Amino acid sequence: MPDAPNLLYAQSGGVTSVINATAWGVATAAAASPKVGRVYAGRNGILGVLAEELIDVTAEDKREIAKLRHTPGGAFGSCRLKLTDPAKDSRSFERIAEVFKAHRIGYFLYNGGNDSQDTTNKVAEFCRARGVDVRCVGIPKTVDNDLAATDCCPGFGSVAKYVAATVAETALDVESMARTSTKLFILEVMGRHAGWIAAAGGLPYPAAGPVILALPEVPHKRFFAAVKAKIAKHGYCVVVASEGLADAKGRHLSERGTKDSFAHAQLGGVAAVLAERAKAKLGVKYHWALADYMQRAARHLSSQVDLDQAAKVGQAAVAYATAGKTQVMPAIVRTSDRPYRWTVKPVPLQEVANKERKLPKGYVTADGYYITAACRRYLQPLIAGEAPQPYRDGLPVHARLRRRAVRKKLPAFRV
Amino acid sequence: MPDAPNLLYAQSGGVTSVINATAWGVATAAAASPKVGRVYAGRNGILGVLAEELIDVTAEDKREIAKLRHTPGGAFGSCRLKLTDPAKDSRSFERIAEVFKAHRIGYFLYNGGNDSQDTTNKVAEFCRARGVDVRCVGIPKTVDNDLAATDCCPGFGSVAKYVAATVAETALDVESMARTSTKLFILEVMGRHAGWIAAAGGLPYPAAGPVILALPEVPHKRFFAAVKAKIAKHGYCVVVASEGLADAKGRHLSERGTKDSFAHAQLGGVAAVLAERAKAKLGVKYHWALADYMQRAARHLSSQVDLDQAAKVGQAAVAYATAGKTQVMPAIVRTSDRPYRWTVKPVPLQEVANKERKLPKGYVTADGYYITAACRRYLQPLIAGEAPQPYRDGLPVHARLRRRAVRKKLPAFRV
């Protein structure tokens, strides 16, 4: 509707294989709402909002918007940028409020992890204090599955499925060669402080099987003994190691010494460290793999449940904002394990912001190296279903957006 | 047929996502042939033949045999074991001939790479010299695509598809974050001396796109300049690096100093070396991934063409052997690029044994960092089609064989 306020959507932080399904949910729900004028997106997330670099989503070809459901990455660009505390330096928040006013933004939807939910909350508080009338809704997204107040996080189920399937496949490879070749295979997966992704590697096999999970929540005093026991029993061992593994002093096993813009240490290389130590202690031939971006970009193996939830939180965010709700996030509520049933409900952003949900104690076996039946009951539904991926000439078909820039109305701003 | 000679099949060397489709082709074609008695498989390849550890394939449940078409790894076990030259030490060959006689083996089908084709040839020569009547047929298999005398190698098309799809997906991820985060992403793939797998990473983008291929056939004098130019143009760069990259002196960039049983250096870690050097030279934030076994076990993303060819060479090997042919290998012959058409024909094992087919010069662009149109025309058909993968509870369904041991008839043998 031409006179209705416009909606601004932005993607934040590390992208996932289904964050664009959320963008699709937002774009199509907003297009269908008489309470929304045009739909804009921040180019490279909040950076584009600050720089007044907005993309006109309403001008995109509807067929390309439909393809967002099977396109990984962040179609409008994302960024890692932590805003300064407005109590100390409010210039960024003032700029955001100006951009909102200049472009008649009535709805701000910010799609990210716990840092981003905090940002959304602060933007909402700031706008309210300045009398800028904008509904601010956070939308959950993180492969790490560590957001509070939601049963799970869109993006996680697909990584979980990728890791579980990869363990199932690579374990068969290792098993078939172990007699004369590799006896230890280590797959390093994401998960800075929480072992949710590594936990999914436990789904294909029972605890008595050839797989060990190295979780960041657990001290690893008997790790090599556990590996040795698996090799003795099965002839080989597959380890799923979280990148966030720490030593007894809490130092990450493989810090590179570099920090990202959130002051988090940049990780990667835990598998190499564990493999070398295992070789020194046990004398076994090893291989290791580092899934890195492959795991969170692997839309070709996304979970249908995850895809559905990613789309739904986008649609729900539009519904909440246009119903007048603000400072909320659509959370996923599980109503049944088997059959799996879920719904969404709005939760206050304060309940989500800056919290971190780790694997509960009851999800890890007593020895620390596997998942319990309760964890399996939690994880299994999240990897269910194979989300369709169209292919052309053997390659996945992805959306290619025009990303037409909205005309600027303000003076430049130095971010 | 009860009185007909038995058939012995063995898997050799690194496994692939479709080598079990070849096993399916062998098992079903042999079961249908009146010229074949029982079908046996060596447990862990030639090692099982030497140890007289044979698996009774005929006793397997036919439904599980059917699942071999969507099961990665080597269902009967494989091994890395180079037999001594029979001219110097013929004990292994004498043992193999004894096992053949004891189990009435009339057909020996050996499924592997160029080392294995050489072994098959030597077994055939040895048996002929000793008057042991066995048809020996090699069956091609290698993700490296480096076998001579065949247009392509079963196993390669699926890895090529996996690498190409992974580049398409991860490039979108990197593109969306590059403004504030990773600008260089390096994906390390297999390929000891030949860059066929890395070349497949060029399929999703044109040469002017954000991707660079680091091939072992090419000297890398201007690599970092090429990366810098891509980042300047696109804001980011994706490098597909072959594990076999060597420096100007021919030393592999990342030898670990360990050797496998074929006296090949164990590789892995090229991506880390390149990334650290790029950071030092260009100061860019990087990420890297090591696909390792993931790429060759990823049956969930196998190419239908590759799967068809893997099954066909298994069937053809049975047809050749039962027609009296020996010392041959079914080679894939391409009869048309577009539409892609292929057939199989028998080629003498001498034409295959111990040769290594590298990327032709005409397949690499003048600057050394991309594939030409001719290479694209060669590769594209090999990744075509998505081979169906059944799932249950969100996980791929794989065959689980009984692997019933055939009763031993000979004294033990020390391998």
TrEMBL record, chains A, B:
User: What InterPro entries does the annotation carry?
Assistant: ATP_PFK, PFKA, Phosphofructokinase_dom, PKF_sf, PPi-PFK
Q: What is its EC number?
A: 2.7.1.90
Q: Where does substrate bind?
A: 142-144, 190-192, 243, 293-296
UniProt keyword annotation of Glycoprotein present: no
- What residues does diphosphate bind to? 14
Q: What does the record give as its pathway?
A: Carbohydrate degradation; glycolysis; D-glyceraldehyde 3-phosphate and glycerone phosphate from D-glucose: step 3/4
**Cell compartments where the protein resides:** Cytoplasm
Record-level GO BP terms = fructose 6-phosphate metabolic process
Question: Where this protein primarily resides, as one coarse class?
Answer: cytoplasm
Q: Which cofactor does it need?
A: Mg(2+)
* UniProt entry keywords in alphabetical sequence: Cytoplasm, Glycolysis, Kinase, Magnesium, Metal-binding, Transferase
Q: Which domain of life is it from?
A: Bacteria
| Sites where the protein binds Mg(2+) | 114
Catalyzed reaction equations: beta-D-fructose 6-phosphate + diphosphate = beta-D-fructose 1,6-bisphosphate + phosphate + H(+)
Give the GO molecular function terms. Answer: 6-phosphofructokinase activity; diphosphate-fructose-6-phosphate 1-phosphotransferase activity; metal ion binding
Site (described: Important for catalytic activity and substrate specificity): 115
Note the Gene3D superfamilies from the entry. Answer: 3.40.50.450, Phosphofructokinase domain
| Domain spans labelled Phosphofructokinase | 9-319
Concerning SUPFAM superfamilies, the annotation shows: Phosphofructokinase
Q: Tell me the function of this protein.
A: Catalyzes the phosphorylation of D-fructose 6-phosphate, the first committing step of glycolysis. Uses inorganic phosphate (PPi) as phosphoryl donor instead of ATP like common ATP-dependent phosphofructokinases (ATP-PFKs), which renders the reaction reversible, and can thus function both in glycolysis and gluconeogenesis. Consistently, PPi-PFK can replace the enzymes of both the forward (ATP-PFK) and reverse (fructose-bisphosphatase (FBPase)) reactions.
Q: How does it assemble?
A: Homodimer.
Family, similarity comment:
Belongs to the phosphofructokinase type A (PFKA) family. PPi-dependent PFK group II subfamily. Clade 'B2' sub-subfamily.
Name it: Pyrophosphate--fructose 6-phosphate 1-phosphotransferase
User: What lineage, starting at the top, does this entry show?
Assistant: Bacteria, Pseudomonadati, Pseudomonadota, Gammaproteobacteria, Candidatus Tethybacterales
